UniProtKB/TrEMBL annotation:
Protein name, as recorded: Acetyl-CoA carboxylase carboxyltransferase component
Keyword Transferase recorded: yes
The keyword Transferase is assigned to this record: yes
Molecular function GO terms recorded: ligase activity; transferase activity
Native source organism of the sequence: Nonomuraea fuscirosea
Length: 530
């Protein structure tokens, strides 16, 4: 068992806790924007029509008192579009079956899809396919946001491709249609395995009455062109005709119950032990200044079952902590940055550990706080490039599921070696303290200054020190803003910014979801020792 050395009475702990609580208050404020949808005016208009809100539909669809892990709630943050990207997505339990659920938010521009809606929807479908989770769409959307059609139309076809691939892979797809599903959106129910439409509310057509009039001169109305009753009685697109929204949700639950769905991966047996140390103490671990290192064992002690951790190679490559633990009964191999920088020893140690995890078919958990691989003449001559490449190679070709949590810094190629977004972890979450960029703001601005100074010298020009200072300040400010967790989450470089105290719960939900799918095929290599 890990023996915690965290002094919760110290001034450092108090300051770190206060800083984290401040960030969490900011997180709550931003996430509340997504929950608010299009604002009070449009919420009231929606309710006046006798309709439920997107999150209310999800709450009634999932099992009572069961968790719903919302994904990418900050999508579109910092863009011209509303926070949340007019769609809610996540993993919920329906009739004891874990499912990926997406729900259009019609209070936000009629549920129209913007570029971030598309990215968020594609990510949801990817999670469903990779983890073998039934995919349920709660549909009510006016189609594409036309002013941004150039960014939506061509890549948007992936939504329909993914629905057919899910079905071909034997992963059920269900569409519950509550309102409009027009133009390309008509293919969502059209390509789903099971379709439920609400009488007098659902409207599914490739072209609405105005478009039909313009294209063919034909006069038609919504109901005869694409109403729920028509599709249930004439076209056959609707498999079930619901009398109202509650009936549609009831039918959706019945469909999932009829699947006979079973997990194909590992299922924990026996009682699960809680960590010895309180999750609340996670708030005071990460320093405000990410250049100050912290011991990731303090995090593991508050996340792992029984606070137990079987450390691997503790005396070698000490800047990277590796070892075995359980989270909610699921075995995991943990890689956690201890002092930020990755040296050759850490890189080789990581490669060996990843290969061992692949031999035992154990999922890997990466806890990121890295400034990257070490630079300098001695390290270059010592082979840091080839050793870093060895670690990245192992991460790239590992076939066990990966989970990543960015706790602090995630700079340079360290982001790659520690399984950043580009390396396809099954799930990636950030703490509010997380920052990620090609390098730190001061370092990046300094490099630009050095390059500019050298260029002026080569041209025989006098270097403008005043302009240099202004440039450095501007670059540092911009890179700092672009490296923050909210900014990165807004661009879907993670699956959400989470409260550190929820880390164990979130990881448990993800590990359970991952094991809906069968164990992946093993990698085709043995273990190479450093």
């Amino acid at each position: 068992m890990i023996r915690s050395r965290l002094d919760t009475d110290s001034e450092d702990y108090r300051l770190r806790r206060e800083a984290m609580l401040t960030r969490l208050a900011e997180l709550d404020a931003e996430q509340s924007k997504a929950v608010a949808g299009g604002g009070q005016k449009y919420v009231e208009r929606h309710r006046a029509r006798g309709k439920l809100l997107a999150r209310e539909r999800i709450e009634l669809l999932v099992d009572p008192d069961s968790p719903f892990l919302e994904l990418s709630p900050l999508a579109a943050w910092g863009s011209e579009f509303p926070v949340g990207a007019s769609v809610v997505s996540g993993i919920g339990v329906i009739e004891d079956v874990e499912c990926v659920i997406t729900a259009n938010d019609p209070t936000v521009r009629g549920g129209a899809s913007n570029p971030w809606t598309l990215k968020k929807s594609l990510r949801a479908a990817e999670i469903a396919l990779r983890n073998r989770l039934p995919y349920v769409n709660l549909v009510e959307s006016g189609g594409a946001d036309l002013p941004t059609q150039k960014e939506i139309f061509i890549p948007g076809g992936q939504i329909f491709r993914d629905l057919t691939r899910l079905s071909a892979a034997g992963v059920p797809t269900v569409a519950l249609v509550f309102g409009n599903s027009t133009a390309g959106g008509a293919y969502v129910p059209g390509m789903s395995d099971h379709v439920v439409m609400v009488r007098e509310r659902a409207k599914v057509f490739l072209g609405g009455p105005p478009l039909v009039k313009m294209a063919t001169g034909e006069e038609s109305d919504d109901e005869s062109l694409g109403g729920a009753e028509m599709h249930a009685r004439i076209s056959g697109l609707a498999d079930h005709l619901a009398v109202d929204e509650l009936d549609a949700l009831r039918i959706g639950r019945r469909i999932i119950a009829s699947l006979g769905w079973r997990k194909r991966g590992f299922v924990p047996d026996g009682p699960v032990r809680e960590p010895v140390y309180a999750a609340d103490e996670l708030l005071g671990i990460v320093p405000e200044d990410l250049k100050v290192p912290f011991d990731p064992r303090e995090v593991i002690a508050r996340v792992a079952d029984g606070s137990e951790f079987d450390e691997f190679k503790p005396l070698y490559g000490a800047s990277l902590v590796t070892g075995w633990a359980k989270i909610h009964g699921y075995p995991v191999g943990v890689l956690a940055n201890a002092r930020g920088v990755l040296f050759s020893e850490e890189s080789q140690k990581a490669a060996q550990f990843i290969q061992l995890a692949n031999q035992s078919r154990t999922p890997l958990l990466f806890l990121q706080n890295t400034t990257g691989y070490m630079v300098g003449k001695d390290y270059e001559q010592g082979g840091i490039i080839k050793h870093g490449a060895m670690m990245i190679n192992a991460v790239s070709n590992s076939t066990v599921p990966h989970l990543t949590v960015v706790m602090g810094a995630s700079y340079g190629a360290g982001n790659y070696g520690m399984c950043g977004r580009a390396y396809d972890p099954r799930f990636l979450f950030s703490w509010p303290s997380a920052k990620s960029a090609v390098m730190g703001p001061a370092q990046l601005a300094g490099v630009m200054s050095i390059v500019g100074r050298a260029s002026a010298l080569a041209k025989g020009q006098v270097y403008d020190e005043e302009a240099d200072a202004a440039m450095r300040a501007m670059v540092e400010e911009r890179i700092e803003a672009e490296s923050l967790a909210f900014f990165l989450s807004g661009r879907l470089y993670d699956d959400g910014v989470i409260d550190p105290r929820d880390t164990r719960t979130v990881l448990g939900l993800c590990l359970s979801a991952i094991n809906s799918a069968p164990e992946p095929e093993p990698a085709g290599f043995g273990v190479f020792r450093p």
